[in-house]
Design a protein that fits this description.
By secondary structure, the chain is of the alpha+beta class. The chain has one domain. The protein is built from three helices and three strands, in the order E-H-H-E-E-H. Strand 2 and strand 3 (about 45-50) form a beta hairpin. The protein is globular and about 30 Å long. The protein starts with 5 loop residues before the first strand and ends in a 12-residue tail after the last helix.
Length: about 70
């Protein structure tokens, strides 16, 4: 959310210690639960947080207050 929509390579670079298979599993879970969306742009898949995902972050009070990115 802080950096806006990101490709899988951008996500991997910011989470260096995460196994790629685990990252794929996590992204699948988030997609299935409509917390994020994915969109093909050119040759890249871009992941973006949904309103439901923002609501979840609000509920757990982990959303940065000054940043608000909508899908």
């Amino acid at each position: 959310m802080k950096y806006g929509p990101q490709s899988i390579s951008q996500i991997k670079s910011s989470i260096r210690d995460l196994n790629p298979a685990n990252l794929e599993h996590i992204l699948d879970f988030l997609l299935e639960n409509k917390i994020i969306t994915q969109k093909m742009t050119g040759e890249n898949l871009i992941y973006r947080i949904t309103e439901q995902g923002i609501g979840l972050l609000d509920f757990f009070k982990v959303k940065p207050s000054s940043l608000f990115v909508k899908s």
